[in-house]
Request: fold
Amino acid sequence: MIDTVIIKTCKNCRITSDRISRTVKKYLKKKNMSDASLEIEVVGVNRMTSLNRKYMKKSGPTDVLSFPLPKISALDNFLGTIVLCHDIIKSNSTKNGVSFKDKFDSNLKHGIDHLLGIHHD
Reply:
């Protein structure tokens, strides 16, 4: 059972916490992560730009950042934090001709993969 999904959203977020939670739980179940916890924060451009500069040493905003936490013990089930930029995901969905919700879900799953140690080039 997925223990906890902590969700913080920006004031103009066009996606509900319930939808985020359902997507996370379904995806983690598919990944055989039966008792994971994680935090998700949906932010605006300014906050994402600041985080991207501070942690990735890159200028400008990005769509998703993941901050995995190392396991301290076998009982530790907190994976880390995923930060998603609502405005960048919205812009990218328009550019790619896909719905905002589909693009959001795709970015959310991408962030979860990073917390699980699945990376890309």
Summary: The radius of gyration is 14 Å.
